[in-house]
Amino acid sequence: MYRLSDHSLEIETGRHRKQWQPREERTCKHCGSGEIETESHFLLSCPIYATLREAFLGKVKTSITSYDSKTYDERLSICLGEAPELIELSAQYVSACHELREKKINTVT
After folding, report:
1. pLDDT at 73 over 60
2. Are 101 and 30 within 8 A, CB to CB?
3. What pLDDT score was predicted for residue 2?
4. For residue 1, is pLDDT > 50?
5. CB within 8 A of 41, min separation 6: which ones?
6. Rounded to two decimals, what is the model's pTM?
7. φ/ψ (deg, to 5) at 36
8. Torsion of CA 8, 9, 12, 13, to 10 degrees
9. What percent of the chain has pLDDT over 90?
10. What is the pLDDT of residues 6-54, one digit of tens each?
11. What is the 3-state secondary structure (H, E, C) of the chain?
């Protein structure tokens, strides 16, 4: 999914605008943290998705008991479905986050 750059996160859309936007200006418009809206921010740290993330990680930790000792990059890999036993669960999590993001966008516009 993300490997194809087929998403609407600021990190990707900012570079395809008519007026190119520098990476540091592609911040998350949803949480106000000032962080760049990257895949890792979207899946691992944006507070907007905290409830979804907590439910997802609760299930992940039953399969991968060492999750808390993983590096940030390893955690991102798990969220992106690179742990074979969690592919479907990861896909559901990413999809739910995108749905919530779209709802937030549509209520603002």
Report:
1. yes
2. yes
3. 42
4. no
5. 28, 33, 35
6. 0.78
7. -65, 135
8. 60
9. 40
10. 556 776 665 555 667 787 888 888 898 999 988 889 889 999 999 999 9
11. CHHHCCCCCHHHHCCCCCCCCCHHHCECCCCCCCCECCHHHHHHHCHHHHHHHHHHHHHHHHHCCCHHHCCHHHHHHHHCCCCHHHHHHHHHHHHHHHHHHHHHHHHHC
Residue owning tokens 């418009």? 29
- Contact between 72 and 44 under an 8 Å Cβ cutoff? The reply is yes
Count of all residues that appear for the chain in the document: 109
Structure tokens at 63: 């399969």
Q: Which residues of 74-101 are buried (b: 16+ CB within 10 A; e: fewer)?
A: ebbebbbbebeebeebbebbbebbbeeb
